[in-house]
Queue: 4 jobs
Job 1
Amino acid sequence: MNINKNYLNLNDSYLFSLIAKKVNEYKQQNPEKEIISLGIGDVTLPLTPAVINRMSKAVSEMGSAASFKGYGEEQGYGFLRRAVSGYYEQKGVGLNEKEIFISDGAKSDLGNILDIFDVNNTVIIPDPVYPVYVDTNIMAGRKIIFIDGNVKNSFLPMPDEELYGDIVYLCSPNNPTGAVYTKEQLKIWVDWALEKEAVILFDSAYEAFIQDSDLPTSIYQIDGAKNCAIEFCSLSKTAGFTGTRCGYTVVPKELERNGTSLNKLWLRRQTTKFNGVPYIVQKGAEAVFSKEGLAQIKDNIDYYLENARIITDTLNQSGIWYTGGNNSPYIWLKCPENMSSWGFFDILLSKYNIVGTPGVGFGNNGEGFFRLTAFASRDNVNKAMNRIQQSGSPFINI
Ligand code: PLP
């Protein structure tokens, strides 16, 4: 018996535990200080009334023999797939409900999708990046090519003639950088993938934060994308479903490789290894896409974006370089005075009692950068930014 030795190649994911350890030590030494976290990628506002009402009704339905539900379709109930399809219609994207697969969140599907690809495929991953793309490919033993995100390309890496690979991950709006690809940039990626017969795995978990109507909220708004891209989306950040768990993955019928439909392969994979998302959760998710539900989540997203604006106002005043914050809950800043990510973490904690996430935790190119998130209460964001502004020369000579 042999284990999967690829697992031994994984780096320990010590980022958030090291942050917690440092914060706890600081708290013990300074019990009187109030620490504000702008570091966590989890929502802080509760589920909206439309979702709660529909889920409560679904709970009652489960208690009556006439409306009880057992196993559902693995790919999701028709009512939710039609609701998602209606949501895409509003973006100008036509999808057949058979192209939509309901999931228990984007993270699972981003990992599971690799089942339908050969382990000998080469994978292209931007750096810095959401660590799940890297680790799931290391687990499978795939060859990874990193492409550089940096100040020069505003953390939006693009393909060049020499770039070759079979699978590429794109995340827009991006975690951790908050950067958003334009339609023109995505068109270049789509044309590249079509030419190389590669497949784009497009993570649009934060699409609902996009405010600028010129920016794409789905890769299928780009001509040709249905022939080369799979899209992963989630209700986690859109509608506060991080603990409730629901997302969706789109595999277009047009998408074929080696003369085989990827939609067919994914359906086969899901019906074999997945038994669907709870009925109660899917009913709550359906309510998100109702007129009332969409208005309510918009209020929550506006709340987070206003938090982001308050944070970026302070950065603007301090002359600090950053991406994100406009169409994203993440703000990715260059550490002042050429400090390292962890050096800035320590200063932010000890001088301002604010916790953020060191950029180096998202890849080598994150060194010297830092992620702040807008997932906090307005009070805490105001308090945190006041502390920085009142310090006289914010961030300079710290
Ligand atoms: N994709 C990105 C870029 C994320 O940041 C996250 C969560 O933080 C996910 C996917 C996973 O979301 P879910 O909660 O749907 O699994």
Job 2
Amino acid sequence: MKRIVVLSGAGISAESGLKTFRDSDGLWENYRIEDVATPQAWKKDRRLVLQFYNERRKQVKAAKPNAAHLALVQLEEKFEVHIVTQNIDDLHERAGSKKVLHLHGEILKSRSTMDPHLVYTIEKHELNEGEKCELGSQLRPHIVWFGEMVPALEYAAYIVSRADILIVVGTSLAVYPAAGLVNYVSPEANKYVVNPDPVVGELAGFKFINAKAGIGIPELVQELIKS
Ligand code: APR
């Protein structure tokens, strides 16, 4: 079975109503990134950080997978499919994709500030001050903040290196180290980019599909299934 790896970013969830970071002029839903998505922000104003992610979590729960998320699931009939996503939403899972690796964490989970292996599902909409892990330390959102290591990076690079087909969708490829993952793909792989706008950096050997994910992905999926 041929292996397809999909590297997805915020753009794939745009048509589900979730705003991309780059579309919001350096502000993310009216917040400055450095105030809400960095370890420094957590030290300075934990309440604001929790509030920001509580709002994002509410939006994610209200959103639904779109035609792009759903079409990618169909690929599993014919291919071994791995989704490597920079997104913190669960729309790939809710669409039905079986193998989803979240590079930047998951908004529906919390984790211990004492032991990063202690990860919990957030049952309610909110995570608040005073909610603690089993060791007694404050829980934080299970998110990789700017300036933090990306724990899944090495495994993601391995997955990309084994791809027969790579699909890069809805990402500006501006945020490292995730953007560097495209460099691990084999020269023999078939490579596609689906994006309505140009992406940062040179992608030699990629076929550029100039379309929104909701149109470009279902078309590409049909083409690959027929091939
Ligand atoms: N279909 C496909 N692509 C789209 C669509 C759409 N409907 N709408 C926008 N895009 C594209 C934009 O052209 C842009 O290239 O999606 C990309 C979004 O880029 P970013 O906002 O930079 O998102 P991403 O690449 O996922 O960002 C990486 O930065 O926001 C942080 O940690 C966060 O994981 C995220 C990381």
Job 3
Amino acid sequence: MELMEKIVSLCKRRGFIFQGSEIYGGLANTWDYGPYGVELKNNLKRAWWKACVYDRGDCFGMDSSILMHPRVWEASGHVDNFFDLKSDCKSCKKRFKTEDLKDKYRCPECAGELTESRPFNLMFKTHQGPVEEAANTIHLRPETAQGMFVNFLNILDSKHPKLPFGMAQIGKSFRNEITPGNFTFRTREFEQMEIEYFVRPEDAERAHAEWVENRFNWYLALGMKAENLRKRQHGKDELAHYAHACMDIEYNFPFGWSELEGIANRSDYDLKQHAQYSSKDLQYFDDAAKERFYPYIIEPSGGVDRAVLAFLIDAYHEEKVKDETRVVLKLDKELVPIKAAILPLLRNRPEIVELAKNIAQGLKKSIVTVYDDTGSIGKLYRRQDEVGTLYCITIDVQTLEDKQVTVRDRDTMLQERISIDKLKEYLLNKLK
Ligand code: GAP
């Protein structure tokens, strides 16, 4: 099986990610995060928020609306510029991104005739209120960024920050992609984690370079393998309509090197546009220099779903143990969904089961712990390895006598006997 198939299969088997609306045959390219998927995703977002908001102190958190005033998308340039060219097959009715086609006239799937290529705006349209008419048309946001630009003035007035400072937000975005695919890599509904960092124009280049390093190192610090990460500078012809420069952080996915996160120098484009369209003064006033100007914006913009997928792929590990293949998700301890699993060795011995449940209950308030007695010990270990659980703790007959449990380390498979009353402290120390 190819690596990507193994990841998709593990995600379904173990409750990370399921096909969206599966019992109805699925809605193409939609994915639902299950019990372990949502834990992993939340841990990832928490790690991002900690690094970008709490640890820095110069970025203000935001959670803006998905629905925004229609003028926002005119000002941002999305109405005029946010489109792909598409071609439709007259025979099989499939739709293609023109830039992906080798032959612009023949369908790559059925060799049918293709329509002329036409622009296709990627924003999802809907109507606000009960009447479906053009005046009520609004869009689902295609990026979280604009929710921060329109609140720039609110942050100036409520927080009185000095440059440089940033705004940070995590939230859903929607793009009517022509060719979604590769599991959760490209979907029409996805989550972004974005920072808009405001700097003096003359500091923009330096700040851009610093953010590239900062964001690259974040992935490394969370255990991503260095050989699977690289930086790629955008050529002039691929820059977004707002960008002066952009550096992508790419991951070596099984389907090739692809963008994980982009760090753009957006210049003063956005604030100037919104100032013009809203007729509000969005300049920054530098008290010391007594000057007003539009700050430049450096924007590290990453995809939550893409990062989750990349971390899953990176952590996937197979090793031979005797005659079996052991599958382990070697996720970093900050990301891994479950830190400890309590497994009774004999599930038909009530006193062992009761003690194991009590131990699990005692740990749960401080450590994300599961209890499982639904299989043989071999099966239970396999299950926990596949979701990356850091420590498996077994309760056996001897535990009843010596009040000690066996703690097995996921990565080394070494086992240690630890007394029950020291277990929580032991695990908390390991998880520090
Ligand atoms: N505000 C800038 C912006 O949105 P982008 O490069 O279009 O820039 C940023 O998107 C990140 O959002 C990408 O690096 C990717 O991780 C994620 N992303 C974009 N489109 C996506 C899609 N269709 N599905 C999943 N993630 C997507």
Job 4
Amino acid sequence: MEKIRILMVCLGNICRSPLAQGIMEHKAKLVGLDIFVDSAGTANYHSGEHPHTSSIRVARENGIDISGQQARQFLPGDLNKFDLIYAMDSDNFENIHRITGTNQSVQKVRLFLDESYPGEGMNVPDPWYGNYDGYLKVFDLIAANCDTIITKIKDKSLFA
Ligand code: 4NP
């Protein structure tokens, strides 16, 4: 089987999506799942920067090193380079459709937390304006959803 390619997308690509990338890579490795994961931001404010220090810290406290990641902007061509494109929130879900010129019928573009909470429109809150507590909550939310995605990959229901 071809390696599944997953892109995690937020606004700046320095807080949420680098965590989603790092956590997904880490968990996939733990269960011996060979997938490719990347992340991007729909804005270019932070292109080239490493993840936010609080994202690096919460990941490190959980045994995951995301310090080597570098922010990049989401590009229209990403639509064809990935099997799944996960938006961390509904604003960025809309941004992805705007940038790629697609609409909600494109099954590969999904709201990330829809995998655990289908149809509830749940967002991963943006921790950028808050304190470290927000990063702890975001870590847990993302980690639990990565477990859901891995379970769906294993039981082959992710693309059903
Ligand atoms: P992210 O968080 O989308 O999770 O990376 C943000 C990072 C930076 C900004 C907003 C959100 N900003 O406005 O610079």
